[in-house]
Specification:
With 154 residues, the protein is α/β, with parallel strands linked by helices. It is built from 4 helices and 8 strands. It is globular, with a radius of gyration of 17 Å.
């Protein structure tokens, strides 16, 4: 359906909140809160650290983005995640959001069994979801744009 760049979720008074974009190098000495190793995003982030011969300082791991943001809100570290969930925490004043390097993207998709055709109800759902995504806009200060994918098989 859509690809979007990742963000770093940072405690509001952290020195990195003044940056326009963050990279793996910026996170080298920072305590990190990451999704667990079952998530491809976690594996990609660790691979980038290892490619630069850096060791990530992983303070905690979670299985949901909202828990990751909650730990950042408590001041336990910095998270790298999709940008939608942190917006709720930012609105409450609990976290700051800084875009992550453009080379990392998070991809949202609808996955079906591949057996037969999609039902009318599923087609309606995907259509409504796509409409909602196309109307969504991130706050202008974040420099994040949705990349809508038109291929119905993705």
């Amino acid at each position: 359906l859509v690809s979007v760049r990742l963000v770093c979720v940072v405690p509001p008074k952290h020195r990195l909140t003044r940056r326009r974009e963050l990279s793996i190098d910026d996170l080298r000495d920072e305590p990190l809160i990451l999704l667990s190793r079952e998530f491809p995003l976690r594996l990609a982030i660790e691979a980038e650290f290892h490619k630069r011969q850096l060791r990530p300082n992983i303070r905690a791991e979670t299985t949901v983005t909202s828990a990751t943001c909650g730990l950042v809100q408590q001041g336990l570290g910095i998270a790298v995640t999709e940008p939608f969930t942190p917006l709720m925490f930012r609105k409450a004043g609990g976290v700051a959001i800084v875009p992550f390097t453009r080379s990392f993207k998070f991809r949202f998709a609808v996955i079906t069994s591949g057996i037969g055709t999609m039902t009318r109800l599923l087609n309606q759902f995907v259509s409504q979801l796509r409409t909602h995504i196309e109307q969504f806009q991130f706050p202008s200060d974040l420099d994040i744009k949705l990349e809508i994918e038109r291929d119905s098989t993705s």
